[in-house]
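Minutes, methods subgroup
Present: GH (chair), OT, SY

1. OT presented the first of two proteins processed in the latest run. Sequence and C-alpha cells recorded below as shown on screen.
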Amino acid sequence: MDRRPVLVSTEYEDPTADVVIAELNRRRVPVLRFDPGRDFPDSAGIDARLGPEGWSGTLTVGDRTAELHDIRALYHRRPTPYVQGAAGQTARFAEQENRRGLGGVLGALAGCLYLSHPQAIARAEYKPAQLAVAAALRMSVPATLITADLYSAREFAAEQPTIYKPLHAGPYAVNGEPAGIWAAPVLAEDIGDGVRHSAHLFQAQVPKVADVRAVVVGTEVFCARITAPRGVVDWRAAYTSLSYEAVDCPAAIRAALHRFLGHFSLSYGAFDFAITADGVWWFLECNPNGQWGWLEAAAGLPIGAAVADLLENGEAA
C-alpha cells in the first residue's frame, strides 16, 4: 500500500476540503491537513535541506510528521494568509519570510502533484488575463471595458445594457457583517466620480436564460445548469432560490476549458458561463480555486471523488 501522504493546505473550517479528506480516509490514503498561515511556526514546523534531487526533510504538524520527499500531492485549498500576531515592521518581515520560506519549499517539491500550484492559482486570478485567454481560445466573451475614466465608462454603458463586477472578490463587510459585491446592472447616468478612484470592470450584459458552472478536475469536466428567478443577474445573490441540473459540456467548450487550464498550468478550475436562448455559452470567468461542494448534492455531480482520484494518483502534471 502506498503510504505517501497527501498534504491539504486550508483554513480550519472548510467543508469542501472535509469532503475530499473523508473520501481519502475511506480509501486509506494518508492525509496531513494544516493551515500554514495560522499554524506556522507555532504548531507546525519545517526542516528542509537542499540536495541534488531537491528538498528533503520534514514537515511537522502537531504530533504528526511527513517526509517532504514523500508528499505525493498538495491540495492547495484556501489557507489563511501568512500573518503574525505582532504589529509593525517585524510582523511584515516575518510574514514575507514565512511565505517565501515555508511556501517556497512546499511549492518546490519534486514529484508532487499540485491541485493546483499556489503560484499558478495566483497568476490565474487576474480577470484581464482570463478574458484575454478565453477570447484567444474563441470562446464567446462579452464586450468588456476596464477603466478609471468617467467618460469612457459612461460611453460604454450608453452603448448597450451593462453590468459592473469587481475585479477581485476579496473580503468585504457591511456594518461588520460579511457581504458580497455581486455583478449588477449599471446605467450610464449611475456612474459617478467614484469610478476615478480605482480600476473598474464593465461588461455587456448577456441576455441569459440560465447559468452554468463547469468544474474541471484534471481531465474530468462536471457541469451544472443553474436557474435563478427572473431578473436575478448574479445567481450568488439568490442561493436559496436556485435550481440545479447536471448537463453535458459541449465538445468545443470542453476542449477550450482544458486548453485554458493548460495555459495557466492549473489542475482545477471552476468556470462560470451565461447561457442564452440560442444555446451559446458565454464565458464570464474562471475561479482557479472555486467552490464546488454544494454542487455534489444539488446536481448529483461526483466532484469530490474526482478530486480524490487526482490526489491519490499523485502524479505530477
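2. SY then presented the second protein from the same run.
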Amino acid sequence: MKFVLAPDSFKESMTALQVANSMEKGLRRVFPDCEIVKVPMADGGEGTVQSLIDATAGKIISVEVMGPLHTSVQAEFGLLGDGETAVIEMASASGIIHTSHKNRNPLITTTYGTGELIKHALDLGVRKIIIGLGGSATNDGGQGMASALGVKFKNAKGEQVELGGGYLDNIADIDVSGLDPRVAGTEFIVACDVTNPLIGPNGASSVFGPQKGATPEKVKILDRNLGIYAEKIESCLGITTASVAGAGAAGGLGAGLLAFTPAKLQQGIDIVIQFTGLAEKIIGADVVFTGEGGIDYQTKFGKTPYGVANITQKVSPHTPVIALAGAIGEGVENLYGENFTAIFGILRQAGPLGEALKEGEKNVAFTTENIARLLTVGINMPKSIDKHNI
C-alpha cells in the first residue's frame, strides 16, 4: 500500500514533519512494508518556511535585522533545495512575536527588517522569493520594507520620512531610483490568505490594527495615513493599491509588495502544494493523511487539510482523505461534503492543554495505528461482500 502523509504543524506541539513522522510510526505498526511519502505542509502562515525546507531538503539561514520596534532581532528565512528559491515569513523579522502587550504601537512599528531579509536572499542569488504575510506587528504599508531595498520616501523638505505607519502622511515624494535593481529580475510570490483592501472599514487598520495595539483614535490615524500613502504611490508610480484585494494583508505590506516588487498574490496553501510537488506524489496513493492542530468550519477557507483534500480530488478522485486534529470544532460535519473521507481527533482522554501538547506525537501515532487497523478490515473483507454498501 502507498500512503501520502501531508499534514500541517500542530501549533505549539509538533512541526509538520514531526506529525508526518508520527503518522508513519502508527502506519508501520500495521503495514510494516508499506510505501510512505511524507510531504510536510503549511498554508502560508507560521510554519511555512520549515515545511518547505523539510519537503525540499533546503536549509535555514539566520541573520540579524531590524525588528518592528527598530531594535535588532534574530530572524530566519529558508533557502529551498533547488538553491534558487527563498521563503520568508515576514513575522520572523517584523512580527508581533517581537513585541509585548505593553509596547505594541503600529504608529511606529516597521517592516524594515522584512526588507533586509529580502536583501539577504537576493545576496544569495535567488531567482524566486516566497513571502508569507501572517502575524505582523506593523501597519506601515510596506514603507519600511521598501526603504530597506533602497526606496526613498521624502517629505516636503526633501528629507527622509521616519519609519512607521504614523508618519506616512508626511510623504510628499517617492523616489524609486535607488531600488535594488535585482528586485525587478526576481519572481515574488506572496502568500496572502486575506482579501482585505488597504483602507476603509475592511482595511488593514480597521480590521487588524486593534490586535497590534491601535486604539480607536490610532486606527483613524493609521487608516488616513495609509490612504495618503496609497495616493502618493499612485501619483508617483502610477500603481493603484488602495482597493486591491489582499493589499491590506500584514498591515498593508501586501500593498507595498505590489507597488515596489513584481509581486503576485496567491493563497498560501496553493503555493506550498506547488513547491512541494504534492499533486504528483498523491498519484497512485491508496490513502492520503492530512491534519492540523484544529479543524472546524473555517478549515475550508484556505487551510492546509482543505487544500490537501481538494488537490487529492483533482488528481486521484477515488483516494480517501483522512484528517487528524488535536481539536475538532463546530461545523466540522460540513467538511464531509468537501472531499474529506473521515476526520479523527487524536486526544485519548480529557486533561490539561499542556499535557495534550506534550503527548502530541504519541497521540498521532496511536490514532493513525487505529485507523490503519480499521483499514485492514476493508482489505481482508470477503469478496462476496460489497464493501461500499456496508
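Chair's summary of item 2: The CA atoms of residues 323 and 343 lie 5 Å apart.
Next meeting: continue with the remaining queue.
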